[in-house]
Amino acid sequence: MAKYFDVHPDNPQPRTISTVADSLRSGALVAYPTDSCFALGCQLGSRDGMDRIRSIRNLDDRHHFTLVCQNFAQLGQFVHVDNDVFRAIKAATPGSYTFILPATKEVPRRLLHPKKKTVGVRIPDHAVTQALLAALGEPMLSSTLLLPDEDEPMTQGWEIKERLDHTVDAVIDSGDCGTEPTTVIDFSGGGAEIVRRGAGDTARFE
């Protein structure tokens, strides 16, 4: 059964966050809130966690996983960013955007797009996610919690606990979460290509 953690949306309890971070280090798969919608997260190097996300969401090997980063310094360790792209991303973060960029050698090969050698990265504007990333000390491997054949993600922590009780290890609930996933911008070809319109305003990239 999944452990259920009720945390304050603006001032998450440090002890609870530390407990979840420890479980991630031990290989746990966690459902957690973000500034767009709930997501599934595991430790960056967890092959089992990645396989479980694929299974829950019925994803193929072309799916872009996302590295959810605490800040720009951390993001810069895992993707190549030139000056123009740096300025564009810096102006939009933290926020509800995922950016697809060429990966550095720090990213495990199995996380990369098989042909493009790219990976998604993002810096969320959410107190609970930021606290968890700070406690973990590294990015989380993540994917939107959108189940197969469903049009919108679940918005309530208790509902996620009820439906995924035997497929995730923990659920963090900090109140109602949105249904709109991140806006996805692909910079891997040089310019900004809008791949998915979501919670982040696309005007700055058009």
TrEMBL record:
Residues 14-200 form the YrdC-like domain. Gene3D superfamilies: DHBP synthase (3.90.870.10). It comes from the Bacteria. GO terms for molecular function: double-stranded RNA binding. PROSITE patterns: YRDC (PS51163). NCBIfam families: L-threonylcarbamoyladenylate synthase (TIGR00057). This is Translation factor Sua5.
